[in-house]
Amino acid sequence: MGRSVLCESFVEDYLRQLSRKAGVCMGLLVGQPSAGGKDYIVHASRITDEETADDSQKLNATVAAQHALDATRMLPGGMYVMGIFVIHPKNVFQEPTLLSSIKFILMSMKATFDANPLLMGTCEELEKGEKLVLHYSSGSKAHVCKTVSLAAENPTVLPCDWKFVERLTTWHKLNVYFETDEVYPLKQQADQEQYDTEANLTECAKKLKGQLMDAKILFDGAPKLGADTVEGVLTMKNQDKFLANVYLPTSAELTASEAKIEQFEGTLKFDGIVSSQIYIHSRCTFAEAERFIVTDIVRSLMSRIQIHCDSLVQTEDTPQDKITLNELPRRVYFPVRQGPGGFPVEFSDYLFPEESVETPLVRIKEILDVGVTARDLKCTVELVPAVKEDEQRPAGEEEVWRKTSTEDDFEGKLNLPVVGGLVAVIVLLIALLVYYFMK
Predict the structure, then answer these.
(1) Which end of the chain, N or C, is more open, meaning fewer C-beta atoms within 10 Å of its C-beta?
(2) Gap between the Cα atoms of 37 and 2, Å rounded
(3) How far is 308 from 351, CA to CA, in rounded Å?
């Protein structure tokens, strides 16, 4: 028996609309895998490729893999690109050419995720190396879903049970604010004079991931059994949410073999507070919830690093400052679906301090095909303190502390230590007089 997949009914409405407008197209399936035997699909987004939009037989693997990577940056921990959908008049599983193209696309996606491991775009523990392929007929509106196993060199097609369901599960929201304040060595490649910003920041995220994998996560101040379901414990406690705390391991001492002295030309201070927001289905276990929390923190950090480094413009002749501030963008949230009743799951994007609130709207539409307005964005979850530039700082003559003093500094001013001493003497004399007369 193959995997079982439950999909929100509004995803079927989206596929039906695409089949009328686009005819032949391909897109991503976003959802959450489960160890309990059922996977959940909550979103579908079309992949647009202007160069091959009119060619019904050609699906661009490079465009699809990059689109999947960009979409993953916007997904909270626990949500993954679980496969693709193909809208086509022919059954793609019965057309060898189309099926071969689909397999190549899925393998390209896997290679892209493998090249970006800190984005944690796959969940091998739950997906078992399989990706979903949903064929939706643009003519009959019929659908069939199968999984493609990428574990072997030659991908194999396996059966899958797919159902569209209205409100398929209850989604529970977990909020975690994770604070990091670490100092790492600033490494420089031997053949380069400048520091590789992305390599150093990526190394910070890599070390932080290792710490998080060994971290202890407490729910409401206490550890939970990994096999217990979140909904079961919430029902027993008669509440609807948890307070989760992440505690990183610390080594109390180093052995003689572990202790060593290294020399570095600089250090990198990696600090800040990360907003982590995940959504888990009703049958999710605490072991899965812990994995999703770690995924969200690491994925969010790596997404910011990649977005920040992509925005940097630096040439080899640019002088290296002694102190450089790399301000990563802050996280903003937006709803996956608007409308009556709403939908609790939210995705996220990233915003630089100098960017306006409207900046992410076009990007969200292009990557996830979600139409939101500036009023829908939650931009105050993470607040970045303002950093004064050099020209905003006080000049030398305006400095609060002065190295030298002149006699003019004391003209017209009271000498506070002398005045304080005189007041103390007067109070003492009054006290002695009062004591003498009352004796």
Answers:
(1) C
(2) 9
(3) 10
Neighbours of 24 (CB within 10 A): 18
For residues 214 and 276, give the distance between their C-alpha atoms in angstroms, rounded to a whole number: 18
- pLDDT by residue, tens only, the chain of 439 residues: 578 999 999 999 999 999 888 678 899 999 999 887 789 999 999 997 644 444 444 468 999 999 999 999 999 999 999 999 999 999 999 999 999 999 999 999 999 999 999 999 999 888 888 999 999 998 888 999 999 999 877 899 999 999 999 988 889 888 888 888 888 888 877 666 677 888 889 999 999 999 999 999 988 888 889 998 888 888 777 676 777 889 887 766 777 777 777 777 788 888 888 989 999 998 899 999 999 999 999 999 999 999 999 988 654 455 566 777 888 999 999 999 876 667 899 999 999 988 999 999 999 999 999 999 999 999 988 876 655 444 444 443 333 333 333 333 333 344 444 445 555 656 566 666 655 555 5
The pTM of this model reads 0.82
User: 177 is written with which tokens?
Assistant: 């604010």
| Residue 135, strand partner residues | 86, 144
- Among residues 123, 108, 28, 103, the alpha carbon closest in space to that of 68 is found at 28
Superfamily, domain 3-165? Cytidine Deaminase, domain 2 (3.40.140.10)
Instruction: Give dist(CA 72, CA 119) in Å, integer.
Output: 7
**What CA–CA distance (Å, rounded) separates 64 from 82?**
13
Domain assignments of the chain as residue spans, ordered by start: 3-165, 171-251+263-391
Burial class (CB in 10 A: 0-12, 13-18, 19+), 392: exposed
List the Cα angle 196/113/150 in 5-degree steps: 150
For 93, left (φ over 0), alpha (ψ -120 to 50), or beta? alpha
